[in-house]
Inverse folding.
């Protein structure tokens, strides 16, 4: 699942870097660093997580559903 | 027999059209109808020359009518004639059916191989052999005396036409050997120039119609002319610069530096041209005002003057098609002087040729590549916008016909795009944190204004759902709840709005099992005694249930609820007595 998000993030990085949209690119590169941390969604606030998912292209409703799948302490 | 009456009638009526031509025969309207029924259809998808549709009735006539046969032989013996015509009286004008040497030979071959025409076989074979005899490449080559001269990309060459005939006559194996071992020094020219000459000669002279080429020869001819052996399509294209505005175009130094200074080292000319185009699209923006005033009037005037170009900078970046074309053309000459270009003006089919009047773009030649660079294919779909939105560009196109060349062009474009992406990422990455904590901190700052807010009850419900879905029970479930609290609520919310305590439920003197429950307190600020609090009792097996302050206090007072340890944080606003089990445990110590 996280791999899917990483792919979405990379696509957006490519898109924004090609178009030179620095503000959006900066945000996606920060998200890339966040996603590279293991179990990252267990380590940040829900609001940040939802915002990351929205920045990755989900609607708010989808983001909440997705977030539910992403947080787990079973690891 | 040819209908001499019809012939005379046609000659009388259409003397000017038929004057000087002997390679035709007169036919009746009935015959014409049958000749037009092209019932023999030969199609070889691998060979576009080999699309033949011809009437078997026409060929049968030729094979059985000596006078007609003789006229055709006479016509095709003359190597300058490529077709034979059948004329007839049509209702309004002179009717004509054309037949090429190639069509006739293919039709004959077809009929000779079809048992249906067995009775006619001797006559068909005779005609076939006779035409083959007068249509060989050698026979045709004898007609070409002396040499032909071509100017190719500014160089003059002299060829013997024999060279081209010999190239067609080579066996497949010899031809492959010749191409693979082509020696530019001994041949005195690049292979592209040699094949260009072959193509020019054979097409200008219509060799494929004057001689009967076999399958192998025809296929070779097509391979060369379709640029499959080498792409020489750009030969003699833009042999000099036809952009007459280059001298008048003066770039703003800041803009020039922005586009060229970071261009990767070691790029080929094509890569440079692609990089400059993409970077320029990334930097410039189509001028809204110019569009809004429908490209006319005083507000549009400045863009129509080439003197405006020095005012265009990376920050003052509004431009229109003329300016983009002029800037791109100038940058090309600075970075890749060997590229030749033309500023194209287009208004429908015609252009005024004047800057600022018609839609303008740059066509250029870069080695074998013929490229068109039109950044404004549409106002809302211009590459200046496409580039910024990460959409594929549609204005930088390779106009070569060779699929291989187009593929190479597109692969190069993809690589340059990736390089540009990498460059932008690296530029930014240098200023970004690499640790998780710093990235989270900075992300929050970046997102502060657009932070999504989900209310506390919804998030609390989310926690309970999450535990339910996890199917965790007992201590595990409570532990999960406490961890969820930390990520679902921020520090301020945890400190003021949402408190959670895990307490003991049940008394030592009852027979039922002693278990745990979570008390969740919700308040505007549970640390302020003036603020009201609401409470929930949560157990994984039953889920959340509201409980009043009074019932909760009663539970504590009765000993049904109690703290597990004396050190446990108290449930906000609930004064609970020290429970009997502490006293008991103390006594047992």
């Amino acid at each position: 699942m996280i791999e899917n998000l990483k792919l979405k993030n990379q696509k957006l990085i490519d898109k924004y870097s090609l178009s030179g949209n620095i503000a959006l690119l900066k945000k996606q590169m920060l998200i890339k660093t966040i996603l590279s941390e293991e179990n990252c969604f267990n380590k940040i606030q829900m609001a940040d997580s939802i915002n990351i998912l929205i920045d990755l292209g989900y609607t708010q409703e989808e983001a909440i559903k997705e977030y539910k799948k992403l947080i787990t302490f079973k690891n | 027999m040819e209908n001499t009456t019809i012939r005379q009638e046609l000659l009388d009526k259409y003397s000017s059209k038929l004057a000087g031509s002997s390679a035709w025969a007169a036919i009746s309207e009935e015959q014409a109808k049958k000749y037009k029924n092209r019932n023999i259809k030969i199609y070889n998808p691998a060979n576009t020359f080999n699309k033949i549709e011809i009437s078997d009735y026409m060929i049968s006539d030729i094979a059985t009518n000596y006078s007609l046969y003789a006229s055709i032989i006479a016509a095709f013996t003359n190597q300058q004639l490529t077709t034979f015509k059948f004329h007839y009286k049509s209702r309004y004008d002179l009717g004509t059916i054309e037949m090429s040497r190639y069509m006739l030979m293919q039709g004959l071959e077809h009929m000779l191989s079809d048992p249906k025409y067995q009775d006619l076989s001797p006559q068909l074979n005779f005609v076939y052999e006779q035409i083959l005899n007068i249509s060989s490449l050698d026979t045709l080559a004898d007609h070409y005396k002396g040499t032909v001269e071509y100017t190719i990309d500014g160089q003059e060459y002299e060829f013997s036409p024999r060279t081209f005939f010999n190239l067609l006559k080579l066996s497949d194996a010899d031809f492959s050997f010749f191409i693979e071992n082509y020696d530019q020094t001994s041949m005195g020219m690049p292979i592209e120039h040699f094949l260009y000459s072959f193509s020019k000669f054979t097409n200008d002279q219509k060799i494929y119609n004057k001689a009967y080429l076999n399958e192998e020869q025809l296929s070779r001819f097509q391979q060369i002319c379709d640029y499959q052996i080498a792409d020489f399509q750009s030969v003699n294209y833009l042999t000099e610069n036809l952009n007459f505005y280059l001298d008048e175009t003066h770039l703003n130094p800041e803009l020039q530096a922005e586009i060229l200074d970071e261009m990767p080292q070691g790029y080929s000319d094509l890569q440079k041209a692609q990089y400059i185009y993409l970077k320029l699209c990334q930097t410039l923006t189509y001028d809204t005002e110019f569009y809004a005033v429908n490209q006319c009037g005083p507000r549009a005037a400045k863009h129509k003057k080439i003197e405006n170009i020095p005012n265009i900078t990376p920050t003052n970046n509004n431009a229109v098609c003329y300016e983009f074309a002029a800037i791109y053309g100038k940058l090309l000459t600075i970075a890749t002087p060997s590229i030749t270009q033309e500023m194209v003006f287009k208004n429908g089919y015609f252009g005024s040729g004047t800057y600022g009047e018609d839609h303008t773009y740059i066509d250029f030649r870069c080695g074998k590549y013929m490229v068109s660079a039109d950044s404004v294919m549409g106002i809302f779909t211009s590459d200046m916008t496409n580039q910024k939105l990460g959409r594929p560009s549609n204005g930088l196109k390779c106009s070569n016909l060779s699929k291989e060349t187009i593929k190479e062009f597109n692969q190069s474009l993809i690589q340059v795009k990736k390089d540009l992406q990498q460059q932008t990422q690296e530029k930014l990455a240098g200023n970004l944190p690499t640790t998780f904590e710093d990235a989270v901190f900075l992300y929050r700052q970046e997102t502060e204004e657009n932070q999504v807010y989900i209310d506390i009850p919804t998030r609390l419900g989310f926690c309970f759902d999450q535990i339910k879905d996890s199917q965790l029970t007992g201590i595990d479930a409570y532990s999960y709840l406490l961890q969820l609290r930390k990520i679902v609520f921020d520090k301020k919310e945890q400190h003021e709005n949402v408190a959670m305590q895990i307490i003991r439920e049940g008394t030592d003197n009852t027979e039922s099992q002693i278990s745990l429950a979570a008390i969740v307190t919700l308040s505007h600020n549970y640390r302020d005694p003036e603020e009201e609090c609401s409470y929930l009792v949560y157990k994984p097996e039953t889920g959340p249930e509201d409980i009043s302050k009074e019932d909760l206090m009663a539970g504590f007072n009765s000993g049904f609820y109690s703290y597990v340890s004396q050190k446990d944080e108290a449930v906000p606003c609930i004064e609970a007595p020290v429970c009997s089990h502490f006293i008991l445990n103390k006594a047992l110590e």
